[in-house]
Amino acid sequence: MHPVNGPTGDDVQAVQKAINMEDQSSIGTGEVVLSGTLDFDSRTVQVNPQNRPIIIRGDATVANTINNGGGALDSNSKPQAAFDVISSAQPVTIQGLHFVSPKPSAIRVLALKDLKITNCTIDGVSSAHILPDQMNLEEFWSATGIVVNLAAQVSPARLVISDNKMTIGSGTSDKNLGIDRTLGIAILAAVSSSVEVDITITGNRVSTVTARGIDFRGITGKALIQGNKIAMGDQGVVRQGVPFQVCGIRCQSSGDYRVMGNSINCGFTNAAGIRLEEVKKASADNNGITMSFQDTPGDLNAGIYLNGGKCLDNGILDNIVSGTSRAGIFVGEGVTNTWISSFFDSPRIPSIITIIDEGLHTTMLGAFTVIRTGVEM
Q1: Rg (CA), the chain
Q2: Given this model, what pLDDT does residue 261 score?
Q3: Domain definitions of the chain by residue range
Q4: Dist CA 310 CA 259 (whole Å)
Q5: More confident residue, 293 or 187
């Protein structure tokens, strides 16, 4: 075991050295125990063990003092996560740490074998300036608590993100670009990948996000999203005057998704509680969604929003939607073979709004009026 008690003078170097020594030791336990206050100065510790499983744990506060401990990175700064996990060879656990003002994320994952991120606290993630490229067609500012990029994953893996508490934040880093895009947990993948990753996102508390609380974009494998509590806040992203797909939980494209037992509060008028986009055989069960705003709901507002021509064979069962909403469940154009049975406990929520193609086969269970054409408010 290697302890690191901050401050050390160069905290990034001290933590990096402890991880490397524990990985290379023939008699070590694989544990790096962090305590005190560690100032990473917007630099990154790489976690890439080759010889043994590594556990990074403790009650340390991992802080940043550059930019006075907060605020957005300027356009000349390179965005750096506090920890970069690049470990396809050995299991890694990150447990119990307290991140303060990481820029633009606390933990970034680029490769994994068996990764657990648990019982961490993330307070106030600062935004980075994202310039247009092949993936992003426009310029914006963005911050994410934990981001996992599976695009280069080469072997099957397991990921658990559990019991973390994140307050991400919102703001305007650039008045010409509007509100920053802030997210709690983002799982990104190459849709063409054949490498399966088994993912569990459970028991996390995410608050004050302007884009998405938990965001999945095209995985290969199974994802269980269970028992998370998400409080969106009353600010949401508007993209150059066009509504952005703000939501508590989004599952997009490939993947075997089960979304169950989550609690979501949407305070933004154009947000959805859960969005399922072009997913197959997904289920959204026993979720509680509260639409807490008082203004007129926007066009993308719904308790649960299904959309896309490849969105089929899904089940929406035993969910509760309350508050004010454009629709309890919105079933968009091209959605087929969906079983729906959910409960709306407010007279201010129409049960189901649908825009339906000819030949659609959707089974509604329960006392609902199914609107076959157009939109009814």
Answers
A1: 21
A2: 97
A3: 2-364
A4: 18
A5: 187
